């Protein structure tokens, strides 16, 4: 009898634990279902487009930044524009908004609504300044109206000081074209002859040493990346402009009045040396240095001119090249010349080591020296 009572009590306790365990499992399951449901609702809410309202602060500046670009970019995000409003910056309402949010660049757009929603929060911080409950769009490219300066900035003027008589001179118009392609708004571009009255005044005012030269107005400062480029070019602002003169020959040197960089090339060879390397290789190398070869002559060592050159410069090896003093303005060429030749007292560059190119003839021994690389 006692055994039956024990078994009965044991089974009763077991049943209680089973029921309790089942209740706990049901509670845990319901809790998990609730959390999954909540997470799903949160995810659905976050995936919904952020509802925004946009105010376009507009100006009558025809060349200024088009806020439609900003608005179109905004619409590419996960957003829903519920309202668009246009307000002129000169209107009373426009002035109140500018003052309220301390807006510096105009025209612009003001964005309000669900600006702190997760899917747009980073974007909002990238494109503008969060002020109170709105975002002021600040990623504005020049030209724009600068409220602090009370004027339109970023309208660049370019003046080219040129020498149209110099057909060989390297034009700087490509530089102004690259500025335009880089997003710089060029309002005006002019061309002035260096020897005209205005040209002479500009040369004196901006201390121009070489022509062609280009003068870029200080509004270029509102293009930070371009301003850094000008600094790298050692351009300094003076009288409201950056003056950049040509550094690539040929150009007119205003100190001497001559065209610098018109090079004369002399090629000296021994026609009897069939194994000797072709002097056209040297010419190609000079062209790679950007050298402008204005005059070119080839002499054999048996010719009158050849003998005079051998005697004058004490030449012991051929084939070689001799380059006129005008080559001195080609800096990269000058830096490399020490490895292959000498600069004579008259300024001419005389090649001394033809072996760096290929097979040559030693005039002292009358022997052909083969190129070891062959």
How much of the sequence is in beta strands?
Answer: 25-35%
Number of helices: 10
What class, by secondary structure content?
alpha+beta
Q: For the report, how would you describe the main beta sheet?
A: 5 strands, mixed
Number of strands: 24
Task: Tell me, briefly, the overall form.
Answer: elongated
CATH class of the largest domain: Alpha Beta
Topology:
Blueprint lengths: L1 H46 L2 E9 L8 H9 L3 E10 L3 H9 L4 E2 L1 E6 L4 H10 E4 L2 E4 L6 E3 L4 E3 L2 E7 L10 H9 L4 E8 L3 H9 L4 E2 L1 E5 L6 H9 L4 E2 L2 E5 L5 E3 L5 E2 L1 E8 L10 H9 L3 E9 L3 H10 L3 E2 L1 E4 L7 H7 L3 E3 L5 E3 L8 E3 L4 E3 L5
Parallel strand pairs: 1-2, 9-10, 17-18
Antiparallel strand pairs: 1-4, 3-7, 4-6, 5-6, 7-8, 9-12, 11-15, 12-14, 13-14, 15-16, 17-20, 19-23, 20-22, 21-22, 23-24
Describe the structure.
This protein is α+β, with helices and mostly antiparallel strands. The chain has 3 domains: 50-146, Glutaredoxin (3-Layer(aba) Sandwich); 154-253, 3-Layer(aba) Sandwich (Glutaredoxin), CATH 3.40.30; 261-369, Glutaredoxin (3-Layer(aba) Sandwich). The protein has 10 helices and 24 strands. It has helices at residues 2-47, 67-75, 92-100, 118-127, 173-181, 197-205, 224-232, 280-288, 304-313, 331-337; strands spanning 50-58, 79-88, 105-106, 108-113, 128-131, 134-137, 144-146, 151-153, 156-162, 186-193, 210-211, 213-217, 237-238, 241-245, 251-253, 259-260, 262-269, 292-300, 317-318, 320-323, 341-343, 349-351, 360-362, 367-369. A 5-stranded mixed sheet has the order 2-1-4-6-5, covered by helices on one side. A 5-stranded mixed sheet has the order 10-9-12-14-13, with helices on both faces. Strand 21 and strand 22 (349-351) form a beta hairpin. The mean pLDDT is 90.
